Amino acid sequence: MKDLHTFAWYAARISPHLPKNVFKPVPSRLWGGLAYLLITVAGFITIGAFELSPFIYLGIAIVLGTSFAAMGFLGHEILHGTVVRTAWLRDLLGAIAFWPLTTGPKLWRKWHNLTHHVHTQHEENDPDAWPTFEKLAKSRFLRWVYKLPHSFRALASFVSLTVQFTLHSSRMFTLYIKEFNPKKRPTVWIEAILPWVTWIGLLFWFGPVKWFFAFLLPLLIANFIVMMYISTNHRLNPITEINDPLANSLTVTVPKWVDVLHFNFSYHTEHHLFPGMSSKYYPLVKEQIKRMWPERYHEMPLTQALKALWKTPRLYYNTAELIDPHRGNVYASLGHGLDPKEIKTIRKEVLPSKREIVKENSLIRDNKEGV
């Protein structure tokens, strides 16, 4: 895919073919959120009030974890302004929805809406983009990680999905807190602290065993569900200088009932084209994309995307390729030859030393600065 276009370029061509009402907020989505909130409260009351078998607690924890994740999906939609438009109500409802995932609405909108969506898959400006090979020389941790065999790294990566969202959210807080207006920083701090006050308070009320089933295990389950989607959103796609959603984003497919439970979160390319549109209408957007640019559109079953993630490394090489420095194996990315049904290396590279990488980066930087 050589010629790239911005998301606005695609949106301008799709919009005339969509009903006018798809650009209006859909408050009825809140009924689903209310159902998940009631399920969550009922789960807390059941665990807190009754002495039950650990297996029953485990079943409740699974239900709570799936509810936490679904509330996060709805919170994502709310904070894009597609459910309600009134700013204070949007942030309040978004805060409630994201409460189990301990992410404040102002941080989320700064990190996700204003940065990730604007700079998707830009190697420097997208806070969610994975590192390039050039960054390997600058990070002792990355160099250590990529000395490990790929199979071990893949296993560790999938296990870490249970904590990745929570850890990345904390990292985004430390990254962006100084960029907020000083007058707004106390609010951002309060939004970050209050959820943890709630959950730590629950620990003292329930005790460690019940707290494990009521919050910690559900949080791990919710992280895993959320990150199953997020990890497939862009990590098989290339790094792009132009924010082209058809090049740098992937839509995954799941059973219809899962889409209903998860508020159509699987439609990710569509979301990057129309982030201000309710995901309720993304199937209509998908129809238009596949009609106009079927050769550009990337979609695959979620299970297939996860298998592709397992088999490929997470380090970019020449923007459109992925590389495993442990053996020098190079893999294609989506749109550049990656076949998710038959993943294989396209070549081996003799990798430069750390000193050579640093020297090359210095020359590139000097050229960009006009030295």
From TrEMBL:
<keyword id="KW-0472">Membrane</keyword>
<keyword id="KW-1133">Transmembrane helix</keyword>
<dbReference type="InterPro" id="IPR012171">
    <property type="entry name" value="Fatty_acid_desaturase"/>
</dbReference>
<feature type="transmembrane region" description="Helical">
    <location>
        <begin position="212"/>
        <end position="230"/>
    </location>
</feature>
<dbReference type="GO" id="GO:0016717">
    <property type="term" value="F:oxidoreductase activity, acting on paired donors, with oxidation of a pair of donors resulting in the reduction of molecular oxygen to two molecules of water"/>
</dbReference>
<keyword id="KW-0812">Transmembrane</keyword>
<feature type="transmembrane region" description="Helical">
    <location>
        <begin position="188"/>
        <end position="206"/>
    </location>
</feature>
<feature type="transmembrane region" description="Helical">
    <location>
        <begin position="30"/>
        <end position="50"/>
    </location>
</feature>
<dbReference type="GO" id="GO:0016020">
    <property type="term" value="C:membrane"/>
</dbReference>
<dbReference type="InterPro" id="IPR005804">
    <property type="entry name" value="FA_desaturase_dom"/>
</dbReference>
<protein>
    <submittedName>
        <fullName>Acyl-CoA desaturase</fullName>
    </submittedName>
</protein>
<feature type="transmembrane region" description="Helical">
    <location>
        <begin position="56"/>
        <end position="75"/>
    </location>
</feature>
<dbReference type="GO" id="GO:0008610">
    <property type="term" value="P:lipid biosynthetic process"/>
</dbReference>
<feature type="domain" description="Fatty acid desaturase">
    <location>
        <begin position="58"/>
        <end position="300"/>
    </location>
</feature>
<dbReference type="Pfam" id="PF00487">
    <property type="entry name" value="FA_desaturase"/>
</dbReference>
